[in-house]
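2024-03-11 09:14:02 INFO worker-7 job=invfold-0412 stage=load source=structure_tokens
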């Protein structure tokens, strides 16, 4: 196990970490394509280049939280490989504390095909993760004891960790991504978290799924994002439409927008804001993320987030 300290994470005592992010570390290879769906051809020439960079869902959540001033610690399994080095470098460059546990199968990776309009198709290499992957109980317990909130990605180690996390009594959040509302793998995450994010893209009836999550689990807030169509939020039994925010620059890549939304929403929640304000923060951060080129890993800072949110407040 390797660990590196991040700026602002303090010592290892209770309350030293605002948010513990579990899982979701890896690298993406970015391939710009002329259109999506991509018509069949023997080959394509990619004049703008094919690049590999660190940054999957847990990395982006940790990056977004850190950029907003929250003390963040990220733990996941990483390989002793060039991809793992990219992830370690990303955390070091941004001052994010990282506990990297050994993964003999190698660091998770994916290939993202990105169209001119910013839409993407992601191809995940599942050979680098196994159903029996687990976080060591001692490491998980120590970090949880020092944290005020835990964000759980939907990886196998996190699935095994859910019962122990529930026993801590800590508030939990998760992102179900493009869950179809039926796959049973996602249900333990959906019903264990206090704040649930998911994409509406694969849901036949988003409101029905959101209400089911709230009724069967312990979620206080459920947010279903829908890209340029905004989002739906269920809080206190009331469904609210959250309008999309106009991006501050041209849209170049939608990858990471959902993670940015979640990070900014959690920032607002941990600051004691009402759910509608948290959702506005999320919409602002998600719009910003769509303007970041796929090969970069920038996140909106606290000052810009608050300024843009104030401009949008009647």
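2024-03-11 09:14:09 INFO worker-7 stage=emit residues=314
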């Amino acid at each position: 196990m390797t660990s590196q300290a991040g700026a602002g994470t303090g010592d290892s005592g209770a309350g030293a970490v605002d948010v513990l992010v579990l899982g979701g570390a890896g690298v993406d290879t970015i391939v710009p394509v002329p259109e999506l769906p991509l018509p069949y051809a023997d080959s394509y020439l990619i004049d703008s280049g094919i690049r590999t960079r660190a940054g999957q869902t847990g990395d982006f959540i940790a990056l977004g939280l850190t950029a907003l001033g929250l003390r963040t610690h990220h733990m996941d399994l990483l390989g002793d490989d060039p991809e793992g080095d990219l992830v370690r470098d990303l955390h070091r460059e941004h001052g994010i504390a990282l506990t990297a546990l050994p993964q003999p199968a190698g660091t998770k990776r994916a290939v993202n095909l990105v169209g001119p309009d910013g839409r993407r198709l992601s191809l995940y290499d599942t050979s680098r993760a196994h159903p029996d992957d687990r976080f060591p109980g001692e490491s998980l317990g120590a970090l949880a004891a020092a944290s005020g909130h835990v964000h759980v990605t939907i990886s196998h180690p996190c699935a095994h960790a859910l019962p122990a996390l529930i026993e801590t009594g800590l508030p939990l959040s998760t992102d179900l991504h493009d869950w179809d509302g039926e796959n049973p793998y996602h249900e333990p995450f959906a019903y264990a978290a206090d704040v649930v994010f998911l994409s509406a893209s694969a849901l036949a009836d988003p409101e029905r799924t959101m209400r089911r999550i709230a009724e069967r689990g312990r979620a206080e807030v459920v947010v279903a994002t829908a890209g340029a169509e905004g989002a739906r939020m269920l809080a206190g039994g009331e469904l609210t439409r959250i309008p999309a925010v106009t991006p501050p620059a041209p849209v170049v890549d939608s990858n990471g927008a959902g993670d940015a939304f979640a990070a900014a929403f959690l920032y607002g929640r941990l600051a004691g804001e009402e759910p509608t304000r948290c959702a506005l923060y999320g919409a602002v951060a998600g719009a910003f993320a769509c303007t970041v080129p796929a090969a970069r890993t920038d996140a909106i800072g606290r000052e810009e987030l608050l300024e843009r949110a104030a401009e949008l407040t009647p």
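2024-03-11 09:14:09 INFO worker-7 stage=report msg="The chain is about 30% helix and 20% strand."
2024-03-11 09:14:10 INFO worker-7 job finished
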